[in-house]
Amino acid sequence: MTSSFRLHTVAAALGLAGAMLLPVAHAQNIKIAMVIPATGPVTQYGDMVKEGVTTAVEMANAAGGINGKKIELVPVDDACEPKQGPVAANRVVNAKIGYVVGPVCSGAAIAAVPIYNNEGVVAVTPSATSPALTEGKNFQFIFRTIGRDDQQGPAAAKFIADKIKPKKVAVLHDKQSYGQGIAASVRDDLKKVGVNVVLFEGINAGDSDYSAVITKLKSAGVDFIYYGGYHPEMGLLLRQSAEQGLKTRIMGPEGVGNPEINAIAGPAVEGMLLTLPADFSANPKNAAIVKAFKDKKRDPAGAFQLSSYAAAQVLIDSIKAVGDNPAKVAEHLHKASFETPIGTVAWDKKGDLKSFEFQIYQWHKDGGKSLATK
Length: 374
Known about the structure:
- By secondary structure, the chain is α/β, with parallel strands linked by helices.
- 40% of the residues lie in helices and 17% in strands.
- The chain has 2 domains: 8-148 and 281-357, Rossmann fold; 150-277 and 359-371, 3-Layer(aba) Sandwich (Rossmann fold), CATH 3.40.50.2300.
- It has a 7-stranded mixed beta sheet, with helices on one face. The protein has a 5-stranded parallel beta sheet with strand order 2-1-3-4-5.
- Helix 6 links the parallel strand 6 and strand 7 (197-202).
- This is Branched-chain amino acid transport system substrate-binding protein.
């Protein structure tokens, strides 16, 4: 979850409430819905997914589409809100669309996927990492092209324990499905290796003043902070901690990896640590795909662009293989493996990837990132 441009055109097409599905698809086209946040505070993650899916579809259509039929993308806004997730899902179902890339955020996805599964709509999320999305659900139509928080959490905890070696750690979260889930995973993994977690506490997403929790962190004498949540709150925590003299490094999950955090945090963002998918754009095997992104002035190196490309690709490849039948496509996904920009992907019976690599990066005040070594 690259550039800070907004989905003005998508939002305009959907209307303020996102009540209509546009554009109207032609009968001969194969429709794939993009369920993304076109409104709300995290539209940038929708931008990332849109870039990846659009590039995949453009390349497929240029090569002849799916068995001679063109692929048509239908954007649907859920604002990354759990209450909007089912609303968006019902729009997809009512429009008789059988395939979805998304939802983007874990909370909205958890609320929506029972509808997709029950109605036989194949949904592949490129970004929702909460284990609760799939664990114990026995879904047949739900997949993801990103790792789970219980893969991401251990990577973060191992780096903290091995490289940072803090004496007192505070773990904060935004009280939401994604943020609290990844925070709990990191906390538990830190405890397993003997790291002292002195505080586990939630903050309110959308607040503008976190001075109270910062005061508590100073009083507790913490020397490292992990935050589970998204970039708006992380940016404020970084900036306000610096302003209040709390000089300790802060780490977050892939949800904080957004260039807009620089405008919020200012110079305090320098050195922020975060887990991200590996930079698949650096793989020479992806040169043609990377060129297709750059030719359209899109960023292939963001958190979710290539996982979104992969989500669209596996749907397209499966429809080519078994026909435009969601039930057969879902069955094919469970059985097959695919060569994608994020590597060879295959799923377990829950629809989770059998393997996925998260790496630790440090963020810089110029908006760039580099692999972290300490």
